[in-house]
Design brief:
Elements lengths: L6 E7 L5 E9 L5 H13 L7 E5 L3 E4 L40 E4 L12 E4 L12 E7 L1 H5 L12 E7 L5
Antiparallel strand pairs: 1-2, 1-8, 2-7, 3-4, 4-6, 5-6, 5-7
Amino acid sequence: MADLENTLLVDVVDAKGKAKGRVTITLRPDLAPTHVARIKELAREGAYDGVVFHRVIEGFMAQGGDVQYGNTTSADFNPGRAGMGGSRKPNLKQEFSAEPHLRGVCSMARSQSPDSANSQFFICFGDATFLDRQYTVWGQVTEGMDVVDGIKRGEPVREPDRIAKMQVAADAT
């Protein structure tokens, strides 16, 4: 039985709201307890619901999680600025580990400062071991990698796919 408190359910839809599927992510508090706590806190607040995948690079990764400018349900939504914001919470101190950035790994996005992760994250399409020990790994896709593979590409993405709902499995409705 999965640890429901450390499992994330992410429902993805296209720009028109048509369901693309569910992604299940096993959280890794053993690697990044502070980052996992932040992801769960924002998910429980509904902060990720409606947030677009604003930067999606073929063969590399899908990035989203900008709850400030990337949330289509917010008055602050700005497609031109999606990817430049975070949340109202303070940035996090890095929790780098030896965990490799392989297909399906979930890791925090950040600026040049190692301690600048906030709410944005990315999911690796393939192996990206050049990121190892430089970005905080906080989870692993365990189901629905086909959904991740189907996220619309672009940098920036025109009419991006988005998270319809992100929830901790223990709270699933």
